[in-house]
Design a protein that fits this description.
The protein is an alpha+beta fold. Helix content is about 40%, strand content about 30%. The structure holds 8-demethyl-8-dimethylamino-flavin-adenine-dinucleotide and P-hydroxybenzoic acid.
Length: about 400
């Protein structure tokens, strides 16, 4: 087999890259370790920045998003029983975010790829990336006991944090930065009207809580838990009790405790690998960086990388210029570190840390009061939340 760009991973980054390249006339093969159903079964992000929506429009995959996605002009922070609404539209000069699940984004992209007839290999086991430092990289994989090889010009590793892409780069060619937080998020998805019309991020002495949603009839809630918690120990009943204890009283009363359709624990981590390139192997999305979910940035950041990478490949094939590919890592990282900062800050301000003393708690309170009292502080949060330009 031969193609121009091998894309490892059929998550949102890999699929969007495949779509944008395909529409530019560039051939791709996507190799995905899991089944289609498994990829579509993962419940993750829910908040899309305007730039993300624009990229999905460019990919021709935004029709359902525009029909079914919810436009949110505001977001709330809560501190004990006090609530602060940030009017995103007013603070940013008209911007908003769109609530539309990552699962739906992935489904739309998968359907568009299948309709275009561009190849995706699901259940591609033991993917190996070879000769990335040369002009003729090769990617091989195993399927039903047989090893296959694809020769290509470039490899895009869009295979997430646990993927093979970053591990294929020699250790001495990568520098990594990491912060592991001493807690995780226990998330629950349920078919019930959400407690509030907009997202509410709550700081509470019992720990952080988030009231989010997927639609007018589907709620998504999270509570901060310690890393030794097991999801089996959290009945729906226990979850809703804990959630209600952490939300402001009026909001707690509005939670409809319906049976969960998904419940899982995700650890929180900040991580960056630099540079995002080794020879002809490019890293994009979670393969190169992770943010804690508190800023709702992970998916958006991943798709921002794809935008820069697409520009690089298009300039290479259309104009014979590698200047954009050479600039890819630096351009992407400049945006990545801004989102790392915002996600780290939101996480630090909203969570209860095990070693927090009274001073640290007052500092969180002071951040909340500062946001309430100082317009430029609220503008700063809002601009980051709706997404910095790229
Ligand atoms: P993904 O989605 O992990 O996809 C990678 C794909 O690669 C495949 N793969 C391999 N394929 C072949 N060979 C291998 N060796 C492979 N190893 C892995 C995997 O099976 C998978 O299909 O990475 P991608 O595409 O970069 O997308 C990143 C996003 O998924 C991620 O950043 C977001 O989900 C993060 N995130 C959020 N982001 C937001 O922008 N807004 C949010 O509101 C938000 N909420 C969240 C989140 C992530 C969460 N969790 C569970 C981590 C909430 C949660 C709880
Ligand atoms: C979600 O709805 O899953 C969600 C929303 C906002 C976040 C993280 C997750 O910051």
């Amino acid at each position: 087999m031969k193609t121009q760009v091998v894309i490892v991973g059929a998550g949102p980054s890999g699929l969007l890259l495949g779509q944008l390249l395909g529409r530019a006339g560039i051939d791709t093969v996507i190799l995905e370790r899991s089944t289609r159903e498994h990829v579509l079964g993962r419940i993750r992000a829910g908040v899309l920045e305007r730039g993300t929506v624009r990229l999905l429009e460019e990919a021709g995959c935004a029709d359902r998003l525009h029909r079914e996605g919810q436009i949110h002009h505001g977001v709330e922070l809560a501190f004990d029983n006090e609530r602060l609404r940030l009017d995103l539209a007013a603070l940013t000069g008209g911007a908003h975010v769109t609530v539309y699940g990552q699962t739906e984004v992935t489904r739309d992209l998968m359907e568009a790829r299948a309709a275009a007839g561009w190849p995706t290999v699901f259940e591609a086991a033991d993917v190996r990336i070879e000769d990335a430092a040369t002009t003729r990289p090769r990617v091989s994989f195993e399927q039903e006991g047989v090893r296959h090889e694809v020769a290509c010009d470039f490899v895009a590793a869009c295979d997430g944090y646990h993927g093979v892409g970053r591990r294929s780069v020699p250790a001495e060619a990568l520098r990594t930065f990491e912060r592991v937080y001493p807690f995780g998020w226990l998330g629950l998805l349920a078919d019930a009207p959400p407690a509030a019309e907009e997202l509410v991020y709550a700081n509470h002495p019992r720990g952080f809580a988030l009231a989010s949603m997927r639609s007018a009839t589907r709620s998504r809630y999270y509570v901060q838990v310690s890393l030794d918690e097991r999801v089996e120990d959290w009945s729906d009943d226990r979850f809703y009790r804990e959630l209600r204890a952490r939300l402001p009283a009026d909001l707690a009363a509005a939670v409809t405790p319906s049976p969960s359709i998904e419940k899982s624990i995700a650890p929180l981590r900040s991580f960056v690998a630099e540079p995002m390139r080794f020879g002809r192997l490019f890293l994009a999305g979670d393969a190169a960086h992770i943010v804690p979910p508190t800023g709702a940035k992970g998916l958006n950041l991943a798709l921002g990388d794809v935008h820069y990478l697409t520009e690089g490949f298009v300039a290479h094939y259309r104009e014979g210029s590698d200047a954009e590919l050479d600039a890819y890592s630096a351009r992407a990282l400049a945006r990545v570190w801004k989102a790392e900062r915002f996600s780290w800050w939101m996480t630090s301000v909203l969570h209860r840390f095990p070693d927090m003393d009274a001073f640290a708690q007052r500092m969180q309170r002071a951040e909340f009061d500062h946001l309430t009292a100082v317009p430029s502080a609220a503008v700063n949060l809002a601009e980051n939340y709706v997404g910095l330009p790229f």
